[in-house]
Write a structure and sequence with these properties.
mainly beta, Neuraminidase, 2 domains
């Protein structure tokens, strides 16, 4: 991917003073920004139409959010986990159903650790909790939970991506140090295996799927670095950097090809 493919466009200021792009996700042609910051909380939701670059109205969440929430696309719906002010409450899970335009709560099987991460993939919500060695799985069609035992390791601030029958656990931190390890989880066999490591140790990266490859951006300590993983040949490579005056709150997302 050459730098000539990177283009830029002006964006409008976020409608709520304390929101930042770390609390955001793109679903379809819209960017959703949720929650506040370290010191200020809100249940407001910002919705940016990425075609016309106009801010749209959006129902507020049921619970007030800080800045540590996680978001994923679950069957085309917006799923938000954690992020509450009360750090002891880690089992907050809300889903916004676009067909009814309503938020609703989902109860977990077990209260996960604060270092857990979620990903929606093929209609299933996966909640990885390596600290407790548990993987909770929510089937959005049947509205049922199941739980599997996974390896118990002290891993936090890792990222997740899914391709086909596999989920990838990317980077993270152990003992406060970033790691370059990447693990592949086989969904059907409930089996974890190591794949090719990142070219650089990093944690809390932003990951997207682009042309059946995993592209990661941001995180600590090399937030400007972009890496691409090809699962067919089990290989990572660095991509040309983005020409921008961004910061560590920037995100990477994919959009439908008709958006120019």
């Amino acid at each position: 991917m050459s730098s000539k493919f990177w283009t830029s466009t002006k964006h409008k200021r976020l409608p709520i003073k304390y929101q930042n792009l770390n609390n955001s996700i793109v679903i379809g042609t819209r960017l959703y920004v949720i929650g506040g910051c370290e010191t200020t909380t809100t249940n407001n939701v910002g919705c940016l139409d990425l075609v016309g670059f106009n801010w749209l109205g959006m129902p507020s969440m049921r619970k007030t959010q800080g800045c540590r929430n996680q978001m994923t696309n679950l069957n085309g719906n917006l799923c938000v986990f954690g992020g509450l002010c009360d750090c002891s409450i880690e089992d907050s899970l809300e889903i916004f159903d676009f067909s009814t335009c309503e938020w609703y709560n989902i109860e977990l099987l077990y209260t996960p650790s604060k270092d857990s991460r979620i990903i929606g993939h093929n209609g299933i919500l996966y909640l990885f909790d390596f600290v407790n060695g548990l993987l909770q799985c929510y089937d959005s069609d049947s509205n049922e939970w199941s739980c599997k035992v996974i390896e118990q390791i002290q891993l936090k601030n890792f990222s997740l991506a899914g391709i086909g029958e596999f989920l990838y656990i990317i980077g993270g931190e152990r003992d406060y140090d970033p790691v370059n390890n990447v693990m592949r989880y086989d969904i059907s066999k409930n089996r974890m295996s190591e794949v090719r490591s990142l070219t650089n140790a990093r944690s809390a990266v932003n990951s997207v799927i682009f042309r059946n490859k995993i592209v990661i951006f941001g995180g600590f300590p090399c937030w400007k670095l972009i890496e691409e993983y090809n699962p067919d040949i089990d290989s990572w490579k660095e991509l040309n950097p983005i020409s921008m005056n961004g910061n560590s709150d920037s995100i990477l997302c994919t959009l439908p090809s008709f958006i120019k």
